Every structure is written in structure tokens, then in C-alpha cells.
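Review box. Two proteins, two foldings.
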Amino acid sequence: MADFVIKELKFNNIETELKSIGFDESYYRTASKKFKYKNLKIFDLTPAQANILKQTALSCGADCATHREVITGNIKTSDVILGGSNHELTKIAEKLKSQPFKLSKLSDEIISLINNKKQNVTKLVGILNITPDSFSDGGKYFEPVNACNHILTLIDDGADIIDIGAESTKPFSEGVCAKEQIRRLKPVLKFIQNENLKIPVSIDTRSSEVADFALNTGASIINDVSGFDFDNKMPNIVSKYGAGIIIQHSKGTPDTMQIKPAYNNLIEEIFFALLEKIQIAENNNIKNIIIDPGIGFGKTKENNFEILDRIEELYTLNKPVMVGISRKSFLGITDNNDELKDSLSAALSYPLITKNVDFLRVHNVKLHKQLLNTITF
């Protein structure tokens, strides 16, 4: 046997580990900051800003990586990777408060990021496709009576929001005109109004005309899978009603998005695309903004799993995050075995729930509600 026994700690609750070794309980909350680490990527610093940040980091026992030409000043800007414990990052932020070149503002943002802890319980968005051709349940709820009955089932199963789509946006699908989407939506939205159902309703549409009708007929959220790219009137319509918006990242349109999608830096491209759309929404005075990285929308299988693995990087956009993995093709099931698809969807949902993702968009609400009840303490 080895002379020393060593175990790497992966448990996030370092306070509990400190208590377990008999550490001074009066100090463990403060000390725990020394054992929690972050790597921050900061974009487009001038050489002067980058040099000051690096020297400040080194003086606090942390580290900071910059472009090799920062020291010469032969570049205009450099991205920077700042790494250290929360304790060290706090010290760096405090020292930056007295530095020039707007670094005091960077100080505030670092402190805000350190203090921003997601502790929410994941909410479930129940999917209702009133289409003849959606990838999972196309045709099943196309008739209004079936759709309305399913709404009641989704509510009973524990949905927090119901997301209704009258246009399939599966890969290689063709668009549905606004008039037809409205025709499909009208009896369903009227049912919700007549039954006085209080659950928030989201409408999955890229069309501002459809959004206008739906928001005027009781819906309160628009789920735009194009992220404003399809219809530039969408922000104005959402703002007019004081409604919420789900901004999804997509690369291309449904009919083209899965034709050899490629990225130079997947997460950064999604990050900056969503940041741009958030700014559009906020410039239109939209307050309730949810972001969605768009699993399967212009993504390879490898892209989808990378997004799931790195989902927390999108939390720094400071908006609620929704993820939709339910029954999608990257699960690798080509037949119509919804039970197996739901089981795999729930398996992939588990780490997202433990990472405190804000919303999961799912077909099988009952199964995911049971999962939440099982693992939420």
C-alpha cells in the first residue's frame, strides 16, 4: 500500500468537507473561498489593461494568461484568461478599484460574477405540438380536442409553462405561413381562456404576425427559435405586449441548419450571438428574457454534447437558461420508441438539473417532474 492515501475532491460543497476534517467552524465560510476556483475569460483588453491585470493577479497569488505580444504593445487588444480561487479573485477585484483604464468597472463585474450563485429549482416547460409533422408527436395533438385534453394533462403532470407550436422546425422542414399557424392556434388559445387556466403559455413561432395574435389571445411568452433572425418585427411585437421572450440560438433555418454545421469556437459563438440578441431585446424594453443554446439547431451531435457539458458558461449572460433535449435525434434513437427517448432525455436532464439550469423543455413532463422530486432536497 502507498505511504499516503490521496483522494481528489470533486464535491462542490467544500464547506462540508472542511467540517469533516475538524476545521475551525467559525472560519470555514471565509476559508472555503480559498478552495473554490474559477477561470474567467475576459475579452478585448488593451495591452495596458491586460498588463495591469496580469501583474495584479500575480501579486495576489493567481495567474493571468495574455497574448504573447501584450508586453510589447504590438497588438491592439488581447483576450485574457484569469484564474484563481474566489478568495484570490476577490483580492484582485479590490485592487483593480484604484487602477486606471476603466479597470474599476472590471472590478465590479468580477465581484458580481463571484457572488452570482444559481440556487433555483429547475422548472419544466411542457411541449404541445399542434402540427401534423413535428419530429416526435406530429399529428397526435393536431385536432383541437386532443390538444386541449393534453394541455390539462401537462398541467396535472406538473408543467410550469406550456409551449405551444403550430409550425414544425425540425431539420429540413418547410415553414408554415402565419395564417395557417393562427388557424391552428385559435381554438387552443380560446380553450385556455374559456377554462381560465392560469398557467403561463409560450408560443413557439418565428412570425411576428403569429406572435401578435397569440399575445392578444392570452399567451405571455414568445419562443423564437430563430432568435429574431427570421422576422425583425418580433422584438417590437413582444415589447408592445410587455411579454417575455425565449431567444434561441440557431445556425441557419430549419431547412438548411443541419447541412454541415461548423464552428470555430462553438460556445463563444453561441455566447456572443445570444449576447447580441439580449441587447436587441433590452433595447426594445423587453424585461423577461430567457436564452436557449438551441440543441439540434445547426449543431452536430458532438456540438450538442459540448453545449450540455459547458452550459454553465452561458450563466454569465445573467439570464435564465432553457435547454431542450427531449426526444431529439442526437439521442441516437431512429424509431418511434418514445419511452426509450424519454428515459435518455431524463438521463441527460439530470446533470442539467444539478447545474441549476432554469428551464427544461420536455415532452414527458410527468417523468421529469418525478426526476425533480427525487433529486431536489
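Next protein.
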Amino acid sequence: MRKVEAVVFDVDGVLTTVDSVWQFIHTHLGTTAEASRYREMYRRGEITYEQWALLDASLWKGVSEKRLKEIVTRIRLRDGASELISNLKARGIKTAAISAGLDIVTNHVCRKLGIDECVSNRLVFRDGVFTGGVEVLVEYNNKGEVLRQLARSLGVELENTIAVGDSEVDISMFRVAGISVAFNPANRRVEEQADYVIKSPTLHPLKELLEKILDC
């Protein structure tokens, strides 16, 4: 039996059916057009990821925490998520989530599924109102380092972790984990960086794959 101590998941597009919580919130608040301008500035290399995150989130400044949380509660968990996490916990496997998304989603998902640890970007609120500030903990290319830190926090060895993601943001995490799984990969580059590839509308095939790996 292969030794696996922890499975670490991306959130947007993997544990949930929404690819980007940032875009989901923009859609509901009517700030999509302004957000696209900042996104293009980042893609052209004119601003850093942290600068992009701050500019992007600044479009929601003054929105109540209650309103933002109400929006993200509309995000659906992917079918099979509960069974997947429950099965891992029953086997004594630690679970974690690392997301370049936002804590109001990641924390909600982790609480709902019973995931042990989660790391994502934190929105800053004051007196129940969003200040426009973001504490950027997970950037485009640093998930690998975040996973290293998380492994130490969980008390597990990196080679005994499995990383599951869907986009280029997850590649640095794939490179340091013992095993990597691309779930509905966004492109060929993501597929090529993973040990396993799964394309499915539900998480049931991932559960089956993890069971096979754990039982090897």
C-alpha cells in the first residue's frame, strides 16, 4: 500500500462548479467590465499579481460582508465532494485546500466538507463592510511553496501528499507533491504536468482513483 498522508485540493473548479470566485462576484455585482481591464493589465505584465488582486477587489469596496457572503453561498459544491472527503477522512488521510481565490469561499467550503486546513486570499472587513483590502497569501506561481508550508503545518512529508488542481496556477503545487492529479484541466500544459488526468462533471472518478492509489 502506497503511503499517502494528505490530499490537497484546489477549490474553484475542483471542489466547486465555479471556475473563479472573483468572476462570480463581479458578475453578481455588475463589475465585470472594470475587472476585465485590470485582468488584461496583469496578463500584459504591467502589474503584479498582488497589485491585480488589490485593484480587482477594490471594485467591491463598501459592499457589506453579509452581501458578499450571501453571493458566495450560491456557489455549488461539485457532485461527489462530500463523499470524497468523507472517504479520505475515514481512511485517516488529512485533507487541505489551497486556493488563489478568496477566503469567503474557501472557508465556507472547508467548513461544509470538514476539510482540515485551508489557505486562500483574505478579504479585509471593518465593521461588517469590505475595505477594498486583500491579504494575498496565494499567488499565481506560489502554490508549491504554500504546499510546503502546509505540509509542515500538518506534520506530513511532501512526498506523501497528493495535489489535485485544474489550472496553470496549480502547476507549482503539482511539481512538489508526491502525486498530482489534473481534474478537468484547463489546457494541455496542465495535463502534461500531472501524473493523472480526470475529465468528469463529478468527483466520483477522482474518489475511485484515490482509492486505487491508496490501496496500491
